[in-house]
Automatic annotation (TrEMBL), chain A:
Compartment(s): Cell membrane
Signal peptide extent: none
Topology class, membrane: Multi-pass membrane protein
Alphabetic keyword roster: Cell membrane, Membrane, Transmembrane, Transmembrane helix
Predominant location: membrane
Cellular component GO terms, alphabetical: plasma membrane
CDD domains: TM_PBP1_transp_AraH_like (cd06579)
InterPro entries reported for this sequence: ABC_transp_permease
Species assigned in the record: Rhizobium loti
Name of the protein described by the UniProt record: Monosaccharide ABC transporter membrane protein (CUT2 family)
UniProtKB/TrEMBL annotation, chain B:
PANTHER family: CARBOHYDRATE TRANSPORT ATP-BINDING PROTEIN MG119-RELATED, D-ALLOSE IMPORT ATP-BINDING PROTEIN ALSA-RELATED
One annotated GO molecular function: ATP hydrolysis activity
CDD domains tied to this protein: ABC_Carb_Monos_I, ABC_Carb_Monos_II
PROSITE patterns assigned: ABC_TRANSPORTER_1, ABC_TRANSPORTER_2
Domain of life: Bacteria
Keywords: ATP-binding, Cell membrane, Membrane, Nucleotide-binding, Repeat, Sugar transport, Translocase, Transport
Family, as annotated: Belongs to the ABC transporter superfamily.
Species of origin: Rhizobium loti (Mesorhizobium loti)
Record protein name field: Monosaccharide ABC transporter ATP-binding protein (CUT2 family)
Amino acid sequence: MTLRDHAIRYGFIVLLFGLVAYFSIAADGFVSPQSAVFIFQSVAITGVLALGVTATLVVGGFDLSIGSVATSAMMAAAYVMVVLEQNALVAVVVCLLIGAIVGLINGWLIVYMRVPDLLATLGMMFLLVGLQRIPTEGRSIATGMTMPDGSVANGKFSDAFLALGRHRFDFFIPNLIPVSVVVLLVLAVLIWFFLEYTRFGRMMYAVGSNERAAELAGAPVKAYKIWAYVISGVFASIGGILLAARLGRGDIASGNNLLLDAVAAALIGYAVLGAAKPNAFGTAVGALFVGILLQGLTMMNAPYYTQDFVKGVVLVVALVFTFALSGRGRR
Amino acid sequence: MVGNAVFRVEGLRKSFGQNEVLGGVSLELHAGEVTVLMGANGAGKSTLVKIISGVYERGGGTMALADQDFAPKTPAEAIRAGVVTVHQNINDGVVADLDVATNLTLDRLSGSGAPTLFNPVRVRREAKAVADRMGLAIDLKARVSDLSLADRQMVAIARALAHQPKVLILDEPTSSLSSAEADRLFALIDRLREQGVAILYISHRMSDIRRLANRIISMRDGIISGIFDKKPLDYEGAVNAMLGRKIHLDQIVVRDSANAVLKIDGLRIAPDARPISLMLGDGEVVAITGLVGVGKTALAETLFGVRQPLSGTMTMNGKPYAPETTGEAIAAGVFLVAKDRGENGIVGGFNIQENIGLPFHKRMSRFGILRRRLERTTARRQIEELGIVCRSEKDEMSELSGGNQQKVMVARWMAQDARLFILDEPFQGVDISARRDIAAKLRASANGRATLLFVTELDEALETADRILVMSEQTIVGEHRNADVDLDRLLAEVAGGPLHSAA
């Protein structure tokens, strides 16, 4: 391998370690288990969404609806528990169903109605942003709220559900690791294994690279594409569950940044280890990278409003790594 | 007729790197005549057209238009000089989202002297003038994307003719038209011929050629291999000159087979085609040959479950066989090496090993988990078997030569035992040694399955097959045992007409 190959392959990882080293010296208290856990926690929900969208990127598609699926799932969880007064299990199941159904509809629009992926999921995004406001006439959902018909919603978030957002597992230090981080790690390992080591994952990559060749090799291409959107939808709804559990209410205003952050993480992932293609490991690293950068800058008292700018710079640099340096973009 | 050559090409050469595509081509086009240019894939037709139309720079030789030196540097320059080309892909010639009138006058919207403001009334008036001159009866306000293919073609040609060309080049204009639509095009061509336009018509379709040609020029391997202008035109001679009849170096030992693997009964693959019936035997290599566009790929895809036959039945080892998906075909042991590996075969993001393993993931995995070691040993074995030149099974496909890429495609499907092994144009873009290797491998491993090749080049069929079937107009029109083949009869069948000797 030439120096250039090494640069492409390990450049981003080196950058990541460089960043950690710099913040360790420059920012007091950056090196601590609590700080590390905080970083993970800050990227957990975006990370889960990013892993889902990675599946659609693998089949050569894109899912713009993940952010609104997550917030819809959050509102649905709140509605189910606060208004319908159901338990945590029902809320979780409803959320997952929403994710799966939206994924199926996205896949159907793209595969059978031939709507281009960006447009279909953009439409779905708008639809969901509107839909989630209809049951409560645009209000956030919390215990004691007044419903449109004048009654008062008396249900509340069950403790089991809130635990998803607030419980911390012991890991050497008591009460260290939040549930959301565990969920992120488990899902990351699952999707990574699925994409890299199962025949289904391999065929999804084939579909993304040359759909016609995959079909002529006997793959049910349409089914693979639809499944990718279902995976994306379900992962997004899991993100929504974690969001609802963390907030403890159905907040109409939250989750605005989820889509862009998740897509950025997945795209940064292209550059990790010179993969030059969507991959689960890269996505996870991409999410972490953004998390570390923001945490470090925050600890060094960088103002909050610079955050999006920093994310944008990272994304652009990563894309240059992927397409210009590795030369894969030309194929 | 020697005097009135409008357009003359002398000793035209062109190379791409080491690869000489045109080796000194000379031809003449006469006013008021349709000259048909025939040639197999890779003969150099499109390179020739691109040089004439100013897309490529020539490597050597001269061109003259009406005795003036003609050396266009850009397509626009060629058009201004009066040499207009309608390319094969119709949609390159029209802008789908604009209306017919704007399309017809599109070339007047740019360039010096074009008005800054877009005046729809003037555009429609000019468009009407163009349409009337051609007798084009299409609503000028219609959007091109709403038109049929034939109408779009007409618009593309009308647009070309708005320049009042002296020379018109039509590159396979009927390849996506129905026969009724083609008739309209022919009427238009007749009209232009009467107006004294010199027309170069590139086609493989014998019916077109019979209908239109005043002269036929055959091309092969970058040179003119025959010019036919004596009446009646010698169509078989032209096909012969195009396909070539080289001495085949390895005479093959023909095998006959009695055990039927696949039986096809009354299969129809196109609405007005005659049904196909044939039998493929165990251990036998059968080649189906015919010109481009006679339905070879359609038949291959029908056998592989990509498309469904209109009628008829297939029987595989005595059991009914009617695949609805490629997956079903593969499960039944029918494998297809599709033509045009870049489009239909190679997964660009995968290395050699992953490309070879692609169709057999199910057989190579346990509980859905891919057994990478098995995949690797399979790839290594196949690389060895077919003599694929590479550093390792981890090489990217883009690092391989065309011949080796094709070997990977063949190796992919030979990794498991087939009952019917179909190869569609397996020698396309493959150098001679790789072609020999693949053919030898196919013959050596033929036992235990039926092998079916679809090839346009006759040489390839003669070199590899035990039996040669000829396809024309979406059906099988002839059968030859590959020993003492009656080449005259075979060529007549390829040319699609009744057997008659013209010369």
